[in-house]
Request: fold
Amino acid sequence: MIRPLLPAEIEQALASLPGWSYRDGALCCEARFASFRAAIAFIASCVDDIDRLDHHPEWCNVYNRVRIRLTTHDAGNQVTERDVALARCLQERLRAALPPTP
Reply:
């Protein structure tokens, strides 16, 4: 079984994941894009990384927003290093897809 991360480990991981938080037992992020098309393009851009990691997010798309929630089912739906690794990949994709904030 995959080991769930301790609260301090989650906090440490979040320090390098701007825009991500730990809510309701999961790593979470919400991104707002310029349009529905841009939101869907972001989701599509993540497919190769997701398949490579063999770890799939829960996400929801409503118009120009994408909400992402990460837990590991094999660890009782708790946060593991697999979630942190996927969050880092998704964060890189977000950085490429969204303009920098002032």
Observations:
- Residues 24 and 69 are 10 Å apart (CA to CA).
